């Protein structure tokens, strides 16, 4: 993911108490009216002067940010803030409502970032008071939002609370995080007015919770080529107990990687298609001129990877993930691992945290109470401490699921997950996490373990669905 460019800004009353997460059971179809509204033609008009009056940043904060970024050192920012405070004249400060910092990824989706940044400069004034009232707005796709949320999680670990909540201006291709919290699924046509409304809404809208999940990959000693931004190499952790209980054979020397995801992690054919699409887009960036073009390329590429038609030369028993993967889960309030049988037909396994997936589709579905009770499931929410696991069989099945004509293959609902993978006749598996794919090396007689656990604190999101 490209580094997000930071801009400082905007407004509303601080001190909101987080509300429950927005409902995860809206209509599966997006109405024509909602699509028209997203174009930015209709909506409450926001006065530019009033917006600028509310959005102010003090001189000391501006100087501190500039100095800290330039020196890449927090101490430089503290010193600059202290010096600037001595220059301020009493009575110059303006009462602030809610300051907002806007991160703009200029390369997301249709690459509207530079234009948006100019517009933000027009709308945002020069002064602000920060701490305690701060809110974040991310202008980018799901990857950019995830990067910012990951940075904010460091504040929890460093015990530097309060941690500001995050709103979104959707610039990416899928924008499932933006859809899930009421910010829309695309960059609107009437974007100049829409940006004003987004900034105003970011300052006044309620705050809700979002679960995040940490994936830990322990593999035979080696490297993951083309390591995605979502993963970082760390010191190996002890997996001996799990190995003994489940008959796994882990090597004496192992490599370990960690990453956090907010939307989904998947293994199998869909990740392979995503991997090929990302490489094609990097090699021929002129093809990727916007979300629509990206989706057309993605669909076309999936037809060439055996997702819709497996070559006759491929051995049938090698098509399903069950040949390389064993699945274990922990249920709510349970400390024991339970093995879940993998359906033989599943070629893609998806672990989903949000209701939205694949550009606003709902593969888990809005399940009826009788079915939930029969399967031992509960209604899915993005802050319930549970994660949903479903499977896709092949391209035709996936297409019908994404068209919401049928539901995905429901496999489990869990509070923690472990995958054990062995190569057999496979020397690699394809994995993706929040849209960042990679090739995972596999060895025939040694296990690779992927463990997924909930991060012990929530991310705070601004609920734009008003």
UniProtKB/TrEMBL annotation:
List the InterPro entries. Answer: ATP-NAD_kinase_N, DGK, Diacylglycerol_kin_accessory, Diacylglycerol_kinase_cat_dom, NAD/diacylglycerol_kinase_sf
Where is the segment annotated Disordered? 1-28
A GO BP term here is: phospholipase C-activating G protein-coupled receptor signaling pathway
Tell me the ranges covered by the DAGKc domain, including all copies: 109-219
Q: What is its EC number?
A: 2.7.1.107
Any GO MF annotation of the entry:
ATP-dependent diacylglycerol kinase activity
PROSITE patterns listed in its UniProt record: DAGK (PS50146)
Please name the Pfam families in this protein's record.
DAGK_acc, DAGK_cat
Which reactions does this protein catalyse?
a 1,2-diacyl-sn-glycerol + ATP = a 1,2-diacyl-sn-glycero-3-phosphate + ADP + H(+)
Q: What's in the keyword line of the UniProt record?
A: ATP-binding, Kinase, Nucleotide-binding, Stress response, Transferase
Q: Which family does it belong to?
A: Belongs to the eukaryotic diacylglycerol kinase family.
This chain belongs to the protein called Diacylglycerol kinase
Q: Which organism is it from?
A: Brachypodium distachyon (Purple false brome)
Q: Give the lineage.
A: Eukaryota, Viridiplantae, Streptophyta, Embryophyta, Tracheophyta
């Amino acid at each position: 993911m490209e580094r997000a460019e930071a801009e400082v800004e905007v407004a509303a009353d601080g001190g909101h108490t987080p509300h429950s997460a927005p409902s995860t059971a809206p209509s599966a179809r997006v109405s024509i009216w909602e699509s028209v509204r997203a174009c930015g033609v209709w909506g409450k008009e926001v006065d530019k002067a009033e917006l600028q009056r509310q959005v102010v940043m003090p001189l000391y904060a501006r100087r501190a940010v500039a100095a800290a970024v330039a020196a890449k050192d927090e101490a430089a920012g503290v010193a600059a803030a202290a010096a600037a405070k001595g220059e301020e004249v009493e009575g110059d400060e303006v009462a602030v409502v809610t300051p907002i910092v806007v991160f703009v990824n200029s390369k997301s989706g249709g690459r509207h970032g530079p234009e948006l940044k100019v517009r933000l400069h027009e709308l945002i004034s020069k002064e602000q008071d920060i701490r305690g009232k701060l809110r974040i707005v991310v202008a980018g796709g799901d990857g950019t939002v995830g990067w910012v949320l990951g940075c904010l999680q460091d504040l929890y670990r460093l015990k530097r609370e309060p941690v500001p909540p995050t709103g979104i201006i959707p610039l990416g291709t899928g924008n499932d995080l933006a859809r899930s919290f009421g910010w829309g699924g695309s960059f609107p046509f009437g974007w100049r007015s829409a940006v004003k409304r987004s900034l105003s809404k970011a300052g006044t809208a309620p705050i809700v919770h979002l679960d995040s999940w940490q994936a830990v990959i322990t593999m035979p000693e080696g490297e993951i080529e083309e390591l995605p931004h979502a993963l970082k190499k760390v010191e190996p952790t002890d997996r001996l107990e799990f190995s003994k209980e489940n008959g796994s054979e882990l090597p004496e020397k192992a490599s370990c990687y960690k990453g956090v995801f907010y939307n989904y992690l998947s293994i199998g054919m869909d990740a392979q298609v995503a991997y090929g699409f990302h490489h094609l887009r990097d090699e021929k960036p002129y093809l990727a001129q916007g979300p629509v073009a990206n989706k057309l390329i993605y669909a076309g590429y999936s037809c060439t990877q055996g997702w819709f038609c497996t070559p006759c030369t491929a051995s049938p028993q090698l098509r399903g993930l069950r040949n390389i993967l064993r699945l274990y889960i922990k249920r709510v309030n349970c400390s024991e691992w339970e093995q879940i049988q993998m359906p033989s037909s599943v070629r893609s396994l998806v672990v989903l945290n949000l209701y939205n997936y694949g550009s606003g589709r709902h593969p888990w579905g809005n399940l009826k109470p009788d079915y939930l009770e029969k399967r031992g499931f509960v209604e899915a929410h993005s802050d319930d401490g549970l994660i949903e696991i479903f499977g896709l069989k092949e391209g035709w099945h996936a297409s019908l699921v994404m068209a919401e004509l049928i539901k995905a293959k429901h496999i489990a609902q869990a509070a923690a997950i472990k995958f054990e993978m062995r190569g057999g006749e496979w020397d690699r598996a394809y994995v993706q996490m929040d849209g960042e794919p990679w090739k995972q090396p596999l060895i025939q007689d040694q296990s690779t373990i992927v463990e997924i656990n909930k991060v012990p604190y929530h991310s705070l999101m601004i609920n734009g669905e008003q």
